[in-house]
Fold:
Amino acid sequence: MAAQNPRAQASDRITLLLSLVPYLLQNNPVSVDEVAENFDEKPATIRKMIESLIVMGVPDRAGDVYSNQMFDVDWDLFEQDDIISLTNTVGIDATPKFSGREAATLLAGLSLIQQAVDEDTKQIISDLITKVARGSSQGAAEISISAPTPPAALALVTEAISRSVHVEFEYSSPASPHATRLIDPLRVENAAGTWYLRGWCHTRQALRTFRIDRLESARIVETPTDVDIDPSGLPDTLFDVSDTDIIAVLELPEWAKDALADYAPREVGSTGGKVQLEVNFGSLDNVFRAISRRPGLITVVSPQSVREQVAVWASSAL
Structure:
């Protein structure tokens, strides 16, 4: 019979040890025989594992394992009665602390989310913010978060979504000034600090995205939404369902095309190391913003109206 590979034996011991600790915590105290039967091992093997366990601990910064940072058992019970009773564990019972930077990041995200939820959820998030701040290794006093003022219509839109009712408003954009829209609101999103409403537009009979800070005279219409669209199934790319018909073809170097990745571009041609991408933009502002990502490298190919608008914008900037 061939001898077992030493590496395989070591791997088996590690697997057993990783399984053994949670079992001991859940069944503490427990007899050696019961543990051996549960893991289909010999009692002698379990005893050796326990003797290995008690030399494991958390080192300090100098690399030394110090008191109360090692596994330990009741040795009288273990040696005299073959009973394993853990008297100290390492790390498992400790509560992790966030660094100041980690806590600040979580708090910023929670503060942003808090702006777009109902009142009951706002309180839950407020309690969570307090807990996260207390869980910082640097203390709550080290963390100060100031969330930007949300657009006036955000609360109304959020309420309409939670109640599954319509919302109506006047909306203006570079492509459609002051149009009245009746919307089945689906969800709100924040992109680069701007809040957007995504929903089914009864005026256009299509999915659309609206900047919430452009909603005017917004009101809730007490009519249940009837569109059969799962909000979680909407495309991740925000401007796939934009509220305008600004479809532009832009040309830029192949290596720089990631600059337009957020707009779900469609490649329509390439030549001489450059690629042409067709993009559905939410507004002319978004065209300007996209071009600003790679100044001097992006050229508007079509339509001519957008080329002219970009030229005016660029001249004004100069």
Confidence is low (pLDDT under 50) at residues 1-11. The CA atoms of residues 111 and 250 lie 37 Å apart.
